[in-house]
From TrEMBL:
Stored SUPFAM superfamilies: Metalloproteases ('zincins'), catalytic domain
Transmembrane segments: none
Top-level taxonomy: Bacteria, Bacillati, Actinomycetota, Actinomycetes, Kitasatosporales
Disordered: region residues: 1-31
The species this protein was found in: Streptomyces cupreus
Skewed-composition ranges (Basic residues): 14-23
Protein name: Metallopeptidase family protein
Gene3D superfamilies assigned: 3.30.2010.20
């Protein structure tokens, strides 16, 4: 007798459903619907919003790189943590063909804030402080609303 259906493979194969016929039948969301952004992406968006807000007043900020890192690095392999407060950001002056950089540390900022609005305000304060340090100005000169929140 001719059997048109080939025999099933011996090993367990990928299952599309659980053993009761229920389970995932397709993607959770259609491709055109954006999925929830990760915390890192949401934080980077807050930094970008703050930078765009300042660039309207200070066009020279277009030449500065703004970076988001998880945590501040230790300065040496054998260095131990000290009793100083953990920095929320830092700035690196331009040199050797490299642009100036402002670094915002995500985890220390997130730990010090409770909600998105509070986080956005702290991110903006840190960005303003670091830009002021790079430009040699006071934070109030960089953003007249600095410290009002």
């Amino acid at each position: 007798m001719d059997n048109p259906v080939p025999p099933r493979a011996a090993g367990p194969g990928p299952r599309r459903r659980d053993r009761h016929g229920r389970g995932m039948r397709g993607p959770i969301a259609p491709p055109q619907v954006p999925l929830a952004a990760s915390r890192a992406e949401a934080f980077a968006d807050l930094v970008q919003d703050s930078v765009e807000r300042l660039e309207r007043r200070w066009p020279q900020l277009a030449d500065i790189d703004f970076l988001v890192l998880e945590v501040p690095p230790l300065n040496g392999a054998g260095q131990a943590w000290n009793d100083e407060a953990v920095p929320l950001g830092g700035s690196i002056t331009a040199r050797e063909g490299r642009p100036a950089r402002v670094v915002i540390y995500r985890r220390p900022v997130e730990i010090r804030t409770k909600g998105r609005d509070e986080r956005a305000a702290l991110v903006h304060e840190v960005v303003v402080e670091q830009v002021a340090e790079l430009l040699g100005l006071t934070p109030e000169t960089v953003d007249p609303r600095y410290g009002e929140d």
